[in-house]
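protien #1 (seq + structre)
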Amino acid sequence: MVDEFFDEEATKRVAGRAVISAAIALFGGAGVAVVPLASIVAIVLLVIALGVAISAIRTLSHPDAAVIGGLRHVGTAAAAIAIGVALLGIAFRVFVLVHS
């Protein structure tokens, strides 16, 4: 960009953190969905993973995030998968709560 107020390094750091957040949400959601925790605790942790993944997608969807190139798409895909895993985990845990 040719904007005098645009800080490319700061934008790269923010976008890089969003990619890391997407990976954490993915592995955290998968881990909580599998680990034998109390269902109420697991649901809370899965909702947090869901929020982190949504935040990562919103950050990586910003036009300025294009400065990190293809890594942006990898992060978005990881966050989308994390959302799916978290939703499936929440559905399973609610099913367990209702039928126990």
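ok now protien #2
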Amino acid sequence: MNAAGLKVMIAHVASTIDQQMFFDKLTSEGVSAAELNGTRSEANALAKALAATPSEKIEALVTHYNDQLDHALNNFQGGWQMNQLEGFRDAQIMIGFVTSLCNKAGIRT
């Protein structure tokens, strides 16, 4: 993965958890609307921050953490299609991980 791929990945996660069917399914499984809306908000803010960031600012970190980023993306893609709750938890982990990378790069999210 490269910086452009990271931007696409986070935008994909944000748009997936923004879907109404995702909201309906998760709230029926016990996830509070506040938790879901907070995660959505964080994902959208992260996607927006990354879209505005020059790729070269994060390329080295993306390269360094490539395996972990790929693993997180694979967990999310495999999880949410089979079990939305598991996919949501994977999305939260991924959002936290990428937010940490942004903090290391000096990017405010």
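The chain has six helices and no strands.
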